[in-house]
From TrEMBL:
The lineage of its organism: Bacteria, Bacillati, Actinomycetota, Actinomycetes, Pseudonocardiales. NAD(+) binds at residues 12-18, 106, 113, 130-132. Substrate binds at residues 93, 99, 132, 163. The gene is mdh. It comes from the Bacteria. This is Malate dehydrogenase. It comes from Saccharopolyspora karakumensis.
Length: 328
């Protein structure tokens, strides 16, 4: 049975993530295989032609679920009536830069986009910010959309989550599907904390199945610095894996997490785990009835506490910086 169409806005549609993302959305992987998709592509004027080229290719795929494609350089038009907003468009970092270096350049993009979402998005709009620094960009957009419930603004740490899953699976010689309850805490940055103390493999705590030295000196830095390692190797930041994580994030948000498992997402803090209220920080989250909920009641030992606090301190600094820049 065919369902009601969903309007999906993708910003930065002509960029490398956009190219890896749009075909998967149009093929039915974002929501489900029965929901028609209306695509809205937002680009800067100089890149509209390239987005038109991608739209021609989307047409040439004859995707049964793809109802329409609109391309615009106007944020209000792009977000009018949108149900899912994927905020990808931003300047990616180059070699030697940290994601925080992009705050000023990219912060300016997310204020007008937050305003446009506030002005015209559908009542059920869900926003995922991919463009870096993703958590603080999400905070900026959210701050400019006072009429949209704050919890509809999220930042992507699913790529970090997926990276952590594979690193652990390879270490233990198990399948990624054997891993449950992994968590990325904090910022999508080199300070993020991938937590194995609550993760389970074969029903047992993952941290107890690996050497402490591997966990502290290999696993955590490998996951936290994977973005930089990809930039080094590819000469460009991750694209297909980022698009894949964006698909996973929204699919989970809409369709739910499996029983007995959770995922990681940057969501507005309600003060849980000592993360200041209002910051957009990564937490362990379940998704039920179309809503993310922070998993409550986990015990946090000293090793984890220190690392969560360090990443949250960075988020607090980023928030203070964008406040000073007048972006929130
Ligand atoms: P890219 O440079 O290939 O594409 C970015 C696109 O955004 C360009 O086409 C550009 O014209 C467009 N753009 C710029 N300003 C815009 C605006 N105001 N409105 C609409 N479009 C705009 O970059 P990319 O590799 O696709 O990466 C996009 C962003 O995603 C970067 O910030 C990158 O760092 C980030 N990223 C995040 C994650 C994550 O896990 N959160 C992973 C990978 C990349
Ligand atoms: C990533 O994690 O791959 C992205 O955030 C790109 C980057 O700048 O690291």
């Amino acid at each position: 049975m065919t369902k009601a169409p969903v309007t999906v806005t993708v910003t930065g549609a002509a960029g490398q993530i956009g190219y890896a993302l749009l075909f998967r959305i149009a093929s039915g992987q974002l929501i489900d295989a029965e929901t028609p998709i209306k695509l809205r592509l937002l680009e800067i004027p100089q890149a509209v032609k390239a987005a038109e080229g991608t739209a021609m290719e989307l047409d040439d795929c004859a995707f049964p679920l793809l109802e329409s494609i609109d391309i615009t350089d106007d944020a209000r038009t792009a977000f009018d009536g949108t149900n899912v907003a994927l905020l990808v468009g931003a300047r990616p970092r180059a070699k030697g830069m940290e994601r925080g270096d992009l705050l000023e350049a990219n912060g300016g993009i997310f204020k007008p986009q937050g305003e446009a979402i506030n002005a015209g998005a559908a009542d059920d709009v869900r926003v995922l910010v991919v463009g870096n620094p993703a958590n603080t960009n999400a905070l900026i957009a959210q701050a400019h959309a006072p009429d949209v419930p704050a919890e509809r603004f999220t930042a992507m740490t699913r790529l970090d989550h997926n990276r952590a899953q594979t690193q652990l699976a390879q270490k233990l010689g198990v399948s990624v599907t054997d891993i449950r309850k992994l968590t990325i805490w904090g910022n999508h940055s080199a300070t993020q904390y991938p937590d194995l103390f609550h993760a389970e493999v074969g029903g047992k705590i993952a941290a107890e199945q690996v050497e402490q030295s591997w966990l502290a000196d290999e696993f955590i830095p490998t996951v936290a610095k994977r973005g930089a390692a990809i930039i080094d190797a590819r000469g460009a930041s991750s694209a297909a894996s980022a698009a894949n994580a964006a698909i996973d994030h929204v699919h989970t948000w809409v369709n739910g997490t499996p029983e007995g498992d959770w995922t990681s997402a940057g969501v507005v803090s309600d003060g849980s785990y000592g993360v200041p209220e209002g910051l957009i920080s990564s937490f362990p989250v379940t998704a039920r009835d179309g809503k993310f909920e922070i998993v409550q009641g986990l015990e946090i030992d000293e090793f984890s506490r220190e690392r969560i606090d360090a990443s949250v301190a960075e988020l607090t600094e980023e928030r203070d910086t964008v406040r000073k820049l007048g972006l929130i």
